[in-house]
């Protein structure tokens, strides 16, 4: 298996933009835990049936897919429901994630997850990158991008690690408080750093 680098950050921090640059510019295999969380609740999957049993049919869209916005509203207003959902989905997401990580052929592989620390996924990684952004900017970006209220964004932020806790787990930090070019520059630097580390390990 390739060396695994974890990449995390709060909602609206710019994780996807950073991961996308690792992939498109440097050919790094990216495993996105958020995408895995969608796969495990596709129609016909057992997890979706459990969610419908718990929350009722109104948690589904007319086409039978999970109404993620409705589910998000339910779980972020009730901590017990969020804990129940996480205990159902986290083992399934982990299984899907490991399968994808094992298939990587790039020099290292990026595991992108908003809950990298909270879910324990960081134990799979050799290093952790945190994409960091001031909370006021995080709030404004997410409310605009997702067309949701600032209160809902705050609830999601509450459920994720607090900024200081995330940063305390970081080996590397990407500061995303400027433009995309600045973000890309930091990604390029880290990529070279990781290649150098791999070279040292396997001369």
Quick tags:
203 residues; alpha/beta; five-stranded parallel sheet; 9 helices; 5 strands; 12% strand; nucleotide-binding; kinase
Spell the H/E element sequence.
Answer: EHEHHHHEEHHHEH
CATH architecture: 3-Layer(aba) Sandwich
Strand content: 5-15%
Count of domains: 1
Oligomeric category: single chain
- Global geometry: globular
Counting helices, strands and paired strands, the structural category is alpha/beta
Mean pLDDT: 90
Your description of this structure?
This protein has nine helices and five strands. It is α/β, with parallel strands linked by helices. It has a single domain (3-40, 96-201), classed as P-loop containing nucleotide triphosphate hydrolases (Rossmann fold). Helix 2 (33-39) packs across helix 5 (79-102). The longest helix is centred in the middle third of the chain and has 24 residues, at 79-102. The radius of gyration is 18 Å and the shape is globular. The model has no long low-confidence stretch (mean pLDDT 90). ATP binds at residues 12-17.
């Amino acid at each position: 298996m390739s060396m695994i680098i974890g990449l995390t950050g709060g909602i609206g921090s710019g994780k996807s933009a950073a991961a996308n640059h690792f992939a498109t510019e440097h050919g790094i295999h990216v495993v996105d835990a958020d995408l895995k969380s969608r796969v495990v609740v596709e129609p016909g999957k057992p997890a979706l049936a459990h969610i419908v049993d718990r929350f009722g049919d109104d948690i589904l869209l007319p086409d039978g897919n999970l109404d993620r916005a409705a589910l998000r509203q339910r779980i972020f207003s009730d901590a017990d429901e969020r804990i129940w959902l996480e205990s159902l989905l986290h083992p399934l997401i982990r299984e899907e994630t490991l399968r994808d990580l094992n298939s990587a052929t790039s020099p290292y592989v990026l595991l992108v997850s908003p809950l990298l620390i909270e879910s324990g996924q960081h134990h799979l990684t050799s290093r952790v990158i945190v994409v960091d952004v001031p909370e006021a900017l995080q709030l404004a970006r997410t409310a605009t991008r997702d067309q949701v209220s600032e209160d809902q964004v705050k609830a999601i932020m509450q459920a994720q690690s607090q900024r200081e806790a995330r940063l305390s787990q970081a080996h590397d930090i990407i500061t995303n408080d400027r433009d995309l070019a600045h973000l890309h520059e930091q990604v390029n630097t880290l990529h070279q750093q990781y290649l150098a580390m791999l070279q040292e390990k396997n001369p």
